[in-house]
Structures are given as structure tokens and as C-alpha cells.
Amino acid sequence: MLTQALDSLVERHYAVIPNFLLVNMQQALLQELLQKQNDGFFHAANIGRGQHQARHSQIRGDSICWLEEDFALGKQYLAMMEQLRQQLNQDFYLGLRSFEGHYAHYQIGSVYQRHVDRHKDNNARVVSAVCYLNQDWPIEAGGELKLYDNNNQLLLTLPPIGGTLVLFMSADMPHEVLAAHHSRYSIAGWFRQD
Q1: How far apart are CA 191 and CA 99, in angstroms?
Q2: Secondary structure (3-state) at 130
Q3: What is the distance in angstroms between the CA of the first residue and the CA of the last residue of the chain?
Q4: CATH topology of domain 2-47+60-192
Q5: What pTM does this model have?
Q6: Tens of pLDDT along the chain (194 residues)?
Q7: How far is the C-alpha of 21 from the C-alpha of 188, rounded, in Å?
Q8: What is the dihedral of CA 16, 33, 183, 61, to 10 degrees?
Q9: Torsion sign (Cα): 23, 117, 69, 96
């Protein structure tokens, strides 16, 4: 299943892997996310880089907590991403050297307007990865990820169903997060060339 998904990443520039996380791992990651949130580790996400970094909640409304090696469950997730990084390099010679990621919480009504993940002045981000932690997500709750090609043609509308991993190329896949009627939880990250 994973090999087929990775082939899709090459052919269509995105891949969807349902049930990437087992239910118990998904639930444990969500519990760690909620604990980190309660402990004050989360902060409002910004857009831009360096001195141009700013908070614009109408453009990007999530709050985040960067994954660290000393997070019990976050460390396990980072290990899974390390295995995936090695497979991506072995199969596609992408030269990926690291993975960075963060827990993300979109409160009810929060969005992330259309954007690409690779910064204009830095080509480090190569493959984006979003893994959903929402349990029993009702389809009518919204919060979908929409992926587009460079011609603004809609390629994918994906509800944030728990355990699903979506991969897409960071440079050429504009995407957005639609508003949800429930709190929406995920891990967002990037495989990087440093």
C-alpha cells in the first residue's frame, strides 16, 4: 500500500495513505497534543519568515507546538517519519536530509488560506506531510484540505479523518484548509533538503 502511495506522489505530486496510524497511536498522539496544549506549549502560528513573520489569523488561524525528541509520542512519530524519509530517498533519490513537524490545532471556524509550503527564498522543503488525529470525524464537519495544481485546478478535497497521512510536493501544490465545525487536530511537517 505504501509503495503504491509513493508512486502516486511521483505521478500526481500527492498521495493519500488511509490508516497510516493505528488507532491506538492516533489516540496517544492526540492525548499528547492536548496535554501539551494544556501545559502552554502551543502558540499562535505565523506566516512569513524572519523579520517578515507576522500573525494574520484571517489567513492562518491555527496554533502549533513543534515536535521535539523528548516528547514521548512525538518521538515515535518522528521515528516513523525517519523511516519514510529513508524510503523516499531510496525510491526517488530526493536527497531528503531531515523532517520537521508540529502539532496543529484549528479551532472552530479557523482556516489557512491557499498557499504553498516552500518559501520563495529557500528550497529546503521538498515533500509536505499532514497526518490527521481527529477521532470519528463527521463528513459534515468541514475542515477539508484542498489541493490544487499550478493551473489552479482542484485535484483533491480531503476530510481530516484520523489516521490518514497525505503527502504532497512542497513547491508546486497550492493548498488550503477550510473552516471546520469541530476542533481539528493534525501533525503537519516537511521532509527537507538542508
Answers
A1: 4
A2: strand
A3: 29
A4: Jelly Rolls (2.60.120)
A5: 0.93
A6: 678 888 899 899 999 999 999 999 999 999 999 999 999 999 998 766 666 666 667 778 899 999 999 999 999 999 999 999 999 999 999 999 999 999 999 999 999 999 999 877 788 999 999 999 998 999 899 999 999 998 999 999 999 999 999 999 999 899 999 999 999 999 999 999 97
A7: 14
A8: -90
A9: positive
Which residue reads 479523518 in cell numbers? Answer: 161
Q: Of the candidates 60, 70, 68, 74, which has an alpha carbon nearest to the alpha carbon of residue 30?
A: 74
d(CA 67, CA 134): 18
> What is d(CA 44, CA 62) in angstroms, rounded to the nearest whole number?
6
Q: Which residues pair with 54 in a beta bridge?
A: 47
Residues composing the chain:
194
Domain ranges of the chain: 2-47+60-192
Task: Give the whole-angstrom CA distance, residue 81 versus residue 68.
Answer: 13
Rounded distance between C-alpha atoms, residue 177 and residue 144, angstroms: 6
